[in-house]
Amino acid sequence: MTMEYRGHRERLLFGTAPEDFVAASAATRQALAEEYAGAAPDRQGQIVEVAAGLAIDLSSYLPRWHLLVAGAETGLDEGALRLETDRYRELLRDWGAESRLGEVDAEIASIGQSNLRRLSELTDAGRLRSRWGHDAAT
Asked: Which of 1, 2, 65, 92 is within CB 3.0–4.6 Å of 97 for a Cys-Cys bond?
């Protein structure tokens, strides 16, 4: 995980108000696309990795920590996040990164089938009373 990717991830998923997320995500995509167009092949590969990582993150449980807080009325919903994920996936397709896109799709599918994610969502919905995570066994 590069510092560049971490910076985008931190800003978009945790430092952007939910009501500003769609615009901030669009601005990030535009900046990545503009840089990609004039970048050397090595840099293009790095930009592909940033877009791929953001697509995966938006499909994970991470947005629920700040952007989709249960019970909060922010104007941001699952549909908007799916659309943003699809837009990052579109960038990968436009850039000819089909192989990386396949890996992204496989990771997104794996996250969607995760029992840990399901347990966390059940806790969010009030159907379980325990919060699950990597430290649950300690």
From this structure: 92
What are the counts of helices (DSSP H) followed by strands (DSSP E) for the chain? 7, 0
CA distance 120 to 132: 6
Amino acid identity at 98: E
Calpha distance 60→58 (Å, rounded): 6
**What Rg value do the Cα atoms of the chain yield, rounded?**
16
Per residue in 33-69, pLDDT (tens digit) is: 999 999 999 999 999 999 999 999 999 988 888 898 7
**Tens digit of pLDDT for each residue in 13-42?**
999 999 999 999 999 999 999 999 999 999
